[in-house]
Design brief:
Elements: E1 20-21, E2 38-41, H1 49-57, E3 62-65, H2 69-72, E4 84-87, H3 103-116, H4 118-127, H5 133-144, E5 149-152, H6 159-170, H7 175-188, H8 190-193, H9 206-210, H10 212-216, H11 220-233, H12 237-245, H13 249-259
Parallel strand pairs: 2-5, 3-4, 3-5
Antiparallel strand pairs: 1-2
Helix pairs in contact: 3-4, 4-11, 6-7, 7-11
C-alpha cells in the first residue's frame, strides 16, 4: 500500500512512528473531518530537528501521553512551546493500576497473555470505553476545542487506536471507516511486524516472540470488541456519549460542527 495516498498521511516522519491525522475521514452525514486538528501516533522521542519543526508546525495545544509511568521513564516526549502536556496511562487493570507495556511490564504480563491469548487485548480495549481517566481527559479537551491535539502511547497502535476510534465515533464516522483507519497501523508498522526472527530484541519473552507479528500489529476484532461493549450497554452511540461523557445532543452537534466540514 502506498501510504501517501491514504487519508491523514503526513510526510517527513518514519512510517514506524505511525504518525498521522484523522482529517479526511468521512462522517455518516457526508461531512469530512477537518484537517490539522486531530493527530495520533507513537511517542515523540528521538526526533530530528526537521521532525521537531514539523511537529511545531501542527500548532499543538494539547498532547496526551497514554504511556504508563514505566514506559515514559527516561523517554520524554518532545513538547512544542505553548502545548499542554499530560501523561496518563491509557489502559488500567481490574485494580485501577496502569497497564505497563515497558519491557519489564510486558514480562509481568506474559502469564496473562499466555492464559487469555487475543481475548486479553480485547478485554483491555473494551475497558477503555468506560470510566477511563485518560479517555475522559482527551474527550474533555476535544469537546472544549483545545485543538490541534496529539495523543499517543508507546507504539501508537492499541491505546492510541481506541482513542482515535472513540473520537471518530463521536464525530459520526461509520464503524467500517474507523476500522479501516485503525488497520492502517499495520501498514505503518510493516517493517516492525515483519522483522526477521534474528533481529527481535533479546529482552522479548518467549510468548511475545512466538506471536511477534500479532503483538506488534492490530486486528479488527479488538476494535470491534469496543463497539460491541458500547452497544451492549447503550441503545445508541449518542446515548453512550451522553451517559459516559455527559454530552447531550446539542453539545455533540456543536462538537461535530467544529470538527467537520
Amino acid at each position: 500500500m502506498d501510504l501517501t495516498t491514504t487519508p491523514g498521511y503526513i510526510a517527513g516522519f518514519p512510517d514506524e512512528l505511525s504518525l498521522r491525522e484523522l482529517g479526511g475521514q468521512i462522517a455518516a452525514d457526508g461531512r469530512t473531518v477537518r484537517h490539522g486538528l486531530l493527530y495520533r501516533g507513537a511517542a515523540l522521542i528521538d526526533l530530528t530537528d526537521a521532525q521537531k519543526a514539523l511537529v511545531n508546525s501542527f500548532g499543538l495545544r494539547f498532547l496526551l501521553d497514554l504511556r504508563a509511568e514505566g514506559e515514559a521513564e527516561g523517554k520524554d516526549d518532545y513538547v512544542p512551546a505553548g502545548c499542554e502536556y499530560v501523561r496518563m496511562g491509557g489502559m488500567e487493570d481490574e485494580d485501577g493500576l496502569e497497564v505497563d507495556f515497558s519491557p519489564k511490564g510486558i514480562a509481568r504480563l506474559q502469564g496473562k497473555f499466555a492464559e487469555y491469548g487475543p481475548g486479553l487485548m480485547q478485554q483491555l480495549y473494551a475497558s477503555m470505553a468506560f470510566g477511563n481517566r485518560a479517555v475522559h481527559t482527551l474527550m474533555e479537551r476535544f469537546v472544549a476545542g483545545q485543538a490541534p491535539l496529539y495523543f499517543h502511547c508507546s507504539a501508537g497502535k492499541d491505546r492510541t487506536g481506541v482513542c482515535a476510534a472513540l473520537l471518530l465515533t463521536a464525530l459520526g464516522v461509520p464503524d467500517q471507516a474507523i476500522i479501516d483507519e485503525f488497520l492502517l497501523t499495520n501498514q505503518y508498522r510493516a517493517s516492525i511486524i515483519n522483522l526477521p526472527a534474528d533481529q527481535i530484541p533479546q529482552w522479548v519473552g518467549e510468548t511475545e516472540r512466538a506471536n511477534w507479528a500479532e503483538v506488534n500489529g492490530v486486528n479488527a476484532a479488538s476494535l470491534q470488541a469496543v463497539f460491541a461493549a458500547i452497544d451492549e450497554r447503550h441503545p445508541t452511540r449518542e446515548a453512550y456519549f451522553a451517559d459516559e461523557f455527559g454530552l447531550d445532543a446539542k453539545t455533540l452537534a456543536s462538537v461535530r460542527d467544529r470538527y467537520l466540514e
